[in-house]
């Protein structure tokens, strides 16, 4: 019997075990059949990856519920993950982890208020037993030769609530012998995830994670050319710096718990080069900037700790760290008013960064802050010409920043842009983090503040923030919506004042966070609130 015949028999056996009537696309209703097995075992990674994604959507859709397809496809997903000939084993393990994670969270998930009483996430009745059986079949993958597969197996098994106590002990033992730093980090995260479900070993898991938060790793790599013996000793030692993963694991195990140690540990770990070496594999699609942004997000409402982290990264000698610092600075400024004066000077220094993406991002942050950034207008203006700024995208952001500051030195550049191309270039701004990875600059909006000039062929946008019309993409409509909701709260109009004063006095902005326009939204909301207060 040929290898091809053997594989055909194997796939036929797996296909016969599946009730294909349950394996459908949750959005289109398309029914899948045994052909997905051929796709999953395809030697072409693109075909295999697309099939894996299709099966994920059939099982959990948008990730909120577990459908009847999940228990049907799980056995052959596990078998595919264990087969070295399958080209997308890690992606399959991710899919299994996503389904199992949804199965754990869906029963207690919160739903939007508008959906209350109409819809709730569900978990198919066959899934829990199917997952409990399948989890044991993934255990051999913890010893796989490929560190990516070992880490993927850990992430999937970390969702096995039924085996939490046993797996915590196993993961801790494996950590001491795991040679790869990324896989070691996965083991730490796995302990944190399992601690949420453990009964007997929860306490020792939390204590172990707190200890790992204090271990700095084995330090800098010695120069092999200077001391071979020192380098060999360093290379053979297994002592990973998993402080970031320990903080993340504790956040997972203790959701809502704010530990004052998280911020200094996170800052120290991100500033240590040995921590930077634990890059996730390419299959995870995470960059160093993503790692930094996520580490900052976990610090939540700890503004002093997050400000200290941002300052340290903005001054760092590595470009990715400075890029991460800019991302954090933009996030904090868009959420807290006090973060603007605290971080603006450090952000402005990066307008001269060696990396053009960092220069563009720094200019965009200055633009986000509007008039508050005007003290740096002269610096920004030096980036309007090719002689002062070789990167075209950065020149556009310099012009946008000057427009937001109200400085008309941008007008000649904007008019030339209007004449030659008609609008800004629409491409990423240098951050790969999704909320910031867009360029939504508007040439009409940039020229609008200078419409009184005879050479600007644009009428200004309406200046009345209380105007009833809804201008597409206008920040005022969002701000006024918040004011209107607050004004409808009390029966007596005089009772509006405390609510509006709270908007003006609070440091945290009431408008949406992590958005280029949030500072402007906040300014518009405050102006509207003052107008309402004057009328009450």
UniProtKB/TrEMBL annotation:
InterPro entries reported for this sequence: ARM-like, ARM-type_fold, HEAT_type_2, PBS_lyase_HEAT
A Pfam family recorded for this sequence: HEAT_2
Family annotation (PROSITE patterns): HEAT_REPEAT (PS50077)
Name of this chain's protein: HEAT repeat domain-containing protein
Organism: Streptomyces poriferorum
